[in-house]
Description:
The protein is mostly helical. The protein has helices at 3-11, 15-41, 53-70, 77-83, 96-124, 132-154, 160-170, 173-180, 184-197, 209-224, 233-249.
Amino acid sequence: MSRQKxxxxxxxxxxxxxxxxxxxxxxxxxxxxxxxxxxxxxGTTLADPAAWTWLHLLRGxxxxxxxxxxxxxxxxxIFLKSMAPRVCSHRSxxxxxVRSKDLCLSFIQQSRQEVHDALRSTLHQKWSPLEDQExxxxxxxxxxxxxxxxxxxxxxxxSLLHIICTWAADVPRGFVDMxxxxxxxxxxxYAHWLMLMVLVEDxxxxxxxxxxxxxxxxxxxxxxxxxxxxxxxxxQRMLDFVRETANNxx
Length: 250
């Protein structure tokens, strides 16, 4: 959203207009996830600009939301629940796939510190030749991933997807540019976020985005630099874990 459009949005007088804009931006984001699934089936890879449309639209939802808040406007209760989900006192276990999801989430929680330490260590060693701003953006994305993983596990939110997507909405713009540019360092970090997306693949618009993305990143990174294998152990384990868990649950 351009600066002028943001200003016009903030200065608008009709609350129904702001609700409509926010609702439409969220709908477009959902559709972008869904279309990305269709594009993947048709051969679209992470090297294609279309693979990142969902990311820009998701970040646009937050931009619209912040514009409303900064303008001092009231936000419809349904958007507050969605943008800042309240915490539940427990996690339902009534469905069989919930057990699989909880097991996967526990795996992510157990590996969270290991992942953070490994990525941070590599940032200051192997990736040190990067530009200072790139290192700063990578560091911010790594630290944010750590905190989002913690929230997803400890807070037991009503909407796991919204907690997970705060990472994509909040990473620095420079990190997004690195993803679109095919930076191996950024893709490695992204692969670890996709581990969280595996948890919500029962949503039709998300589907296999997590697993498919991890598989592609592993292939791309190992083809370019075999030394990256050690940084992709946890995403690979997640793929193996999901397959084994699915077999055990069934």
